[in-house]
Amino acid sequence: MIRTYLTHCQFPASQSNRIMRSSAILVFGGLLAGCAAGPDFQRPTTSLPASYTATAVASETGSAPTPLGQSQHLVAGLAIDAQWWRKLESSALNSLIDEALANSPTLDSARAALRQSQELYAAQAGATQYPNVNLTTGAQRQNISPSAQGKSGDTQTFSLYSTNVGVRYNLDLAGGNRRALEAMLARTEHRLFELNAARLTLASEVSGAAITRARLAAQADATQAILLAQEEQYSLAQKRERIGHATPDEVLSLQAQMEQLRAELPLLHKQLQQTEHRLAVLAGRAPGAGGIPVFTLNGFTLPAELPLAIPSELLRQRPDIQAAEALLHVATAEYGVATARLYPQFEISASLGAQALTTGALFGGSAVWSLFSQLTQPLFNPSLPAEKRAALAALDAAAANYQQVVLEALRNVADILVALDHDTQSLAALVTAHTAALGAMESMQRQYALGAASYIQLLTAQQQVEESRNKLIAAQAQRLTNSVALYQAMGSAEPELHALRQQNP
């Protein structure tokens, strides 16, 4: 725009020389504008182990002859389905997670924060990458006395109307504006990774809460069955006491066991209702709205294959690691901004307009123009070096935070892999114990039918079966929970980041 203005206006030779000198300054500034202060961001290099655990992890878990007891295969390089929860094959869970992803206030907040960052980036880009062009119109009433300039004559009063178009642009010699824009783009990426992490966490929390609800319901049923057996056993003990075949201590002991177990039921029901409240809130509902599906462990399927990314791939998949990397990128760019403030700042501005004594003659009035350039070099400003040192400290802190996030991610995966192995072993042992308890109860039933065992012995055997079933339920639910945890730990690749970088290279 400035070049067009200079081309179409005719000036005297002296003015042309000044304009040529100004143009030379502009060209020189443009050449310097290719530089950018501060280091270019490089993805951090992290020394990663070949395996998550000190000992090699088996590619296949153990198994147990029970529902949710089949073996699972850990497959390296297996693509992670963005809707991985569908591997659990629960239509009720699928519907609830879809509802949560659509209605969660947490996701709405994360989406709004992302939109805010995108608009702030667009505002920064518009303010720094392009000239600022403004149209100004004005009118003023003036009273001028010639005597103030040493001249004779009467005082003159008149109106002066003006209009002009002004252009202002910072050539960004040291690249501070570009570094600031780079920092804002990295912040936008950070918001996107936070949104991805919120989605992943929400799906995992809904899945985990649904599994917990199924476990609590099954354990409440098992506990109720045990309580009924103990109540019957206590009633028989009271009768035996009356006829002298049982001591008061025996009756009191049975009563204490029965009441302790009775106290567990309200706790299970409390946890069950609290889990339903949590599921409602995760889905974006009020806790009292109701409508939460009834989940059972039989309604879930244990995934036969689980993804296992190598540690180097994990860095590109986990949104928390990607978010920490984005913050490191922000700190690097802001260090460049602080460095650029120590170098010359070059700004140019130009305006073209007209002045007239009446509005009708404004566009045919006297043309006024200006061309201005300014180069500012800080000579003494103690705050600028301090700002640079502060930015460097922030960069060091972001680098340390990134390393900590990576270590925590590796620990998270390692813990889950260990749990997959040991919890399967625990399940197999509990299946054996439950089978033995069932065998003992069947034997006791035969003996009772033949009159070789008392009814109390039969009730005791039934109670042992229900107790072992209670523990087996917890172990079965834990296998589902471990699978969900591994999916969450592996992260997921979201397409929005690629689109964001394509839009804002």
β-strand number = 6
- CATH topology name, in short, is Outer membrane efflux proteins (OEP)
SSE series: HHEHHEEHHEHHEEHHH
CATH superfamily: Outer membrane efflux proteins (OEP)
Q: How does the helix and strand content classify structurally?
A: alpha+beta
The CATH architecture can be given as: Up-down Bundle
Summed up, the helix count is 11
Biggest beta-sheet profile: 4 strands, antiparallel
Number of domains: 1
- The N- to C-terminal Cα distance equals 25 Å
> Helix share of residues?
55-70%
Structural description of this entry:
The protein has 505 residues and is α+β, with helices and mostly antiparallel strands. The chain has a single domain, classed as Outer membrane efflux proteins (OEP) (Up-down Bundle). It is 61% helix and 12% strand. It contains 11 helices and 6 strands. It has a 4-stranded antiparallel β-sheet with strand order 2-3-5-6, with helices on one face. Helix 3 packs across helix 5 and helix 4 packs antiparallel against helix 5. The chain is elongated and about 140 Å long.
